[in-house]
UniProtKB/TrEMBL annotation:
CC cofactor note: Divalent metal ions. Mg(2+) is the most effective.
Recorded GO CC terms: cytoplasm
GO molecular function annotations of the record: metal ion binding; phosphatase activity
UniProt source species: Phycicoccus endophyticus
Binding site for Mg(2+): D14, D16, D216
Cofactor: Mg(2+)
InterPro entries noted in UniProt: HAD-like_sf, HAD-SF_hydro_IIA, HAD_sf
Active site annotation, chain numbering: D14, D16
This protein's name: HAD-IIA family hydrolase
Highest taxon listed in the record's lineage: Bacteria
Keyword terms of this UniProt record: Hydrolase, Magnesium, Metal-binding
Amino acid sequence: MTALLERYDAVVCDLDGVVYRGTDAVPHAVETLSALSAPVVYATNNASRTPGAVASHLRELGLRLGSADVVTSSQAAAWLLHEHGVSEGGIVLAVGGEGVTVALSEAGFRAVRRPEPGTGAPVAVVQGYGRDVSAADLAEVAYAVADGATWVASNTDLTLPTERGTAPGNGALVAAVAEAVGRGPDLVAGKPEPPLYALAAHRLSTDTARVLAVGDRLVTDVLGARRAGTDSLLVLTGVDDLDAVLAAPADHRPTLLAPDLRWLCEDPAAGEPSLEELAAAVRRAHEARDAGEDESAARLGEEAHRLLDRLADR
Ligand SMILES: [Mg+2]
């Protein structure tokens, strides 16, 4: 028996909808992740929390890890600045929560919330989510961008789920600045753009092609994995379900899908039915849909649903 994970060097794991939902752990997640022999890096588009704060939340759920096991889109944004030639010590306007400022400072940049008189204009802006980001902060982004600063968005998620409902996410705040300056950001660090996965693979001392990306959302985790050249496992414990997978355009289709994280430790070719049988059924439904054979696609989709039900009961 060869567990799914043995095909890869490591796992890059999403958090919300995979490890936790709100404050609670997703069933089976902590036990499975604790038992893995392969290294895991947790990659989050959330730019406002520091890796230390994320790691401490995960430890409260029962995982054993440190802040080096977490990569955030703020860190990926700072990494992108290095890649694009912004030198250490460069003044970078930091808009967002503590995670943005800390990531920039740790990467050697001089993070400022407002341009300081006499120190020169910011060479770059990193814009991430923060509960306290104000209209004045967004105005500073617009002024810096108009002055030629490189504009990096930590992520462009339009919405942010909260306990009280759906709030505007960083993408909505980035769009507000884009309206003012007449264009979008120069670079985006988080999923579905590749830098966060690239940084995670770098942290794991391997290549994006050698890791398995695990996530719950097609438009971020799976599309991002595809763009990074990474295989993906969609777990059905979060946002997207099998119907979403069946309706997905080609670049949003995961390599494999599973009811939950426990399948990381299973042989994808073994069992009745197997994970690979489910993936093959989904593939046939996609092929029928791509060929415009809607009736056939619907029938094959129902077959995939039956396989998923049996798989979940195994
Ligand atoms: Mg998620």
